[in-house]
Amino acid sequence: MKIASYIGLIVGLAILTGLVVSEGVTNIFDLLVSTGWSLLWVPAIWFPTVLMNARCWQLLFAEEHAPSFFQAFYAQWMGRAVNTLLPVASIGGEVVKARVLVFWGIDAAHAAASAVVDKTIQVITIIVWGVIGVSLLAAMALDSELLISSLISIVLLAAGVAGFFIAQKAGIFGFVVRSAHKVTKSDIVGGWVDKAENMDVIVRQVYERIGPLVAATTWRMFALILQSGEVWLAAYLLGFPISIIEAVMLKSLSSTLSDAAFVVPNSYGVQEGAFVVLGSLIGIPAPMALAISLAIRIRELIIDVPGLVLWQHAEGRALFRRRTDADGTQD
Questions:
Q1: What is the separation, in whole angstroms, between the first and last Cα of the chain?
Q2: Three-state SS for 76?
Q3: Is 328 exposed, middle or buried (0-12, 13-18, 19+ CB in 10 A)?
Q4: What is the DSSP string of 239-260?
Q5: CA 185 vs CA 97, 173, 191: distances in Å
Q6: Residue 157, Cβ neighbours under 10 Å: how many?
Q7: 3-class SS at 143?
Q8: Which pLDDT does position 328 carry in this prediction?
């Protein structure tokens, strides 16, 4: 998977570069700088979704094991930064956010199990979000071939998440570790069996709490809808106003395609290609569509880079603490 992510990164950056060069680097740059500092409002309208996603994740914990809201917020922020900026196939960030909570004293099994369920909810809401985009595309009667392609992508994504959900209910973690132990005969792997089976139990318990599960999914869905605001605002600031409905269609389908291409880190090239194709259906010129896509990436510098720095700080503190404890034990 790591090799696939690196290949995806190279291919995605090549596509992104090709699109920008073909449409004119100077043209796109002039569009972006013509707005001055006003484009900084684009990440500002997006930022509340981080808070909403943190609340979603917090709801998945049993009350006695739940982190505080700010712990969930900071861990979610770091995990998102890792998924966005590093070639981890959108999975590494889930490991990071659970790991950070463990640093802060949250039970490891509950942190990991909630992260797994949270990732499942993310994909489920993306599927619903994609259906909304496809419905708008059909209602606007813009492109029947693209409509069919989008539906196929959503069906494949839905089939994948359905399989993952069934595997979770069946105890996938215990199965994987037990299988690994049979093959390797390793005592270390054998010591993980009970922990993996305990995690399977906790995952099933999370799914049994229907109320929090529905509430968490609702928070995720509202966050996705709110993200359409960044597309609408970016287009407005760049001098090409679009309707809210058009912004929702652009955001939902580009997000769905980006999530389907999860092996491409941060959907480089995928997002831009989607904006060019979808934007052309509603009359947005290719250079403007690329400028809009790049404008909403400003949040990666303003929000995600600090999140990556925070994660490194958390890892550094944890490493320092372990070394200090080890030195104290030796003394």
A1: 43
A2: helix
A3: exposed
A4: T----HHHHHHHHHHHHHHHHH
A5: 31, 17, 11
A6: 20
A7: coil
A8: 63
* Contacts (Cβ under 8 Å, ≥6 apart) of 134: 147, 150, 151, 154, 253
- CA 203 to chain centroid: 20
Would you mind telling me the total number of residues written for the chain in this entry? 331
* Burial classification of residue 234, based on how many CB atoms lie within 10 Å of its CB (0-12 exposed, 13-18 middle, 19 or more buried): buried
Confidence at residue 257, expressed as pLDDT on a 0 to 100 scale: 81
Alpha-carbon span 84 to 265, nearest angstrom: 7
Q: Give the 3-state secondary structure of residue 105.
A: coil
**Structural domain boundaries in the chain:** 2-320
Which residue is it, tokens 């969930």? 72
pTM (2 d.p.): 0.84
The dihedral over CA atoms of 226, 233, 8, 143, expressed in degrees to the nearest 10, equals 90
Q: Is 91 exposed, middle or buried (0-12, 13-18, 19+ CB in 10 A)?
A: middle
Q: Find out whether 273 and 14 touch, Cβ atoms under 8 Å.
A: no
**Confidence at residue 325, expressed as pLDDT on a 0 to 100 scale:** 67
User: What residues of the chain score a pLDDT lower than 70?
Assistant: 1-2, 141-144, 325-331
Cα maximum dimension of the chain = 74
Contact indicator for 41, 229 with CB cutoff of 8 Å: no
What's residue 284's pLDDT?
A: 92
3 state DSSP class of 192 = coil
The one-letter amino acid code at 222 reads F
DSSP-based helix, strand, coil % in the chain, nearest 5: 85, 0, 15
The tokens for 210 are 């229907």
Q: CA–CA separation, 159 vs 176, rounded Å?
A: 21
